[in-house]
Specification:
This protein is α/β, with parallel strands linked by helices. The chain has ten helices and 16 strands.
């Protein structure tokens, strides 16, 4: 099958493209090569077997979809960004870009889409109160964070909450600009599926890491930031108290999930799957494992915070396991040991 991978020069998109080529598919990589991510030009490690198109998905020429059987839509601005001045760019690349792509797919009758979504659509994850059961915490408050009170209280009684694993049926509760755009992508894609009869699968990635992550950019994930610090001989700077719970999933497993999603889903619907390892770790645990494997300085817990961050988000990959056959192959220990010395992208900025 001929597959269009938007954002295919990116960290995850490049891995998806290579995995699809290894599986015998024909792959077209489309990427606008944003300087904040790629520096100058195509990355050296991009699979040479893929056809390359330097183009912006927001200005998509329908002819790009000629003969395409499925689209893996990875193109996106990621991360929390720098400040609200980034808001128009996030909305433009993530929301407008997706809308343009979906309209072109409808015109060309390309009826299968795999969407790169994110755990961020869940916001603060899932919590329970001993007295009130499942509750949704309110927005994080600066006075609490300044005082080192990082865990959200019960919005009804103020008691401590217990984090729980979240599944795909949980309500969306985006709490940052990036999260809002990812939720919007899902909603637009669901509308496209209903209207066109197309089949759509949204893969809600958790904290993805692995070879060829970007470095030297504020739009990177925490694993990239820690590894970039170690490359410069510096200790990873762990925000808050380091106890934030996350699920770290290797990029090779994410690429595998994308291939499985190519034959999943129901016509006329959007089906969402958590793409996670199923083995949660705290942020400081990850930093310590990475520092030890790298042989660098131990991480420093700073107490700093970013208001747009959430505290605990841990997913259940049970639906992906049962319906997609998704089985992560790389354990946390194996993945961090590999990532400690894996090649990164050239520094940008």
């Amino acid at each position: 099958m001929r597959i269009l991978v938007t954002g295919g020069a990116g960290f995850i998109g490049g891995a998806v493209a290579s995995a699809a080529l290894d599986a015998g598919h024909e792959v077209v990589v489309l990427d606008t090569l944003l300087p904040a991510v790629h520096g100058a030009g195509w990355p050296e490690h991009l699979d040479p077997r893929a056809e390359r198109l330097d183009a912006d998905v927001r200005e998509l020429d329908d002819s790009v979809l000629e003969g395409v059987g499925a689209v893996c839509h990875q193109a996106s601005m990621v991360g929390l960004g720098i400040d609200l001045d980034d808001l128009p760019a996030y909305a433009s690349h993530n929301v407008l870009g997706t809308a343009v792509l979906l309209a072109a797919m409808a015109r060309r009758r390309v009826d299968r889409l795999v969407l790169a979504s994110s755990m961020v659509v869940y916001g603060e994850g899932r919590y329970t109160c001993a007295d009130h059961g499942v509750v949704r915490p309110g927005a994080r408050r600066v006075p609490d964070l300044d005082a080192g009170r990082f865990d959200p209280p019960c919005p009804l009684c103020g008691s401590a909450l217990t984090w729980k694993v979240i599944d795909e049926d949980s309500p969306l509760d985006p709490r940052s600009v990036y999260a809002s755009t990812k939720a919007s992508q899902e909603m637009l894609t669901a509308s496209w599926a209903r209207s066109s009869g197309g089949t759509a699968v949204a893969l809600r990635y958790h904290n993805v890491y692995g070879p060829h992550m970007p470095q030297g950019t504020p739009y990177a994930g925490v694993a990239s930031l820690f590894r970039s610090s170690l490359e410069r001989g510096l200790a990873p700077q762990v925000f808050e108290d380091g106890a934030q719970m996350r699920d770290f999933v290797h990029v090779a497993d994410v690429a595998s999930a994308n291939l499985l999603a190519l034959t999943a889903g129901t016509p006329g619907e959007l089906t969402a799957y958590n793409v996670a390892s199923g083995s949660p770790h705290s942020v400081v645990e990850m930093a310590e494992a990475l520092s030890q494997a790298f042989g660098g300085p131990s991480p420093e817990v700073t107490g700093e915070y970013r208001l747009g961050d959430v505290r605990h988000v841990v997913a259940s990959p049970a639906r992906a396991r049962s319906e997609l056959g998704f089985a992560p192959a790389i354990t946390f220990g194996e993945g961090m040991a590999e990532f400690a010395t894996a090649p990164l992208r050239a520094r940008v900025g």
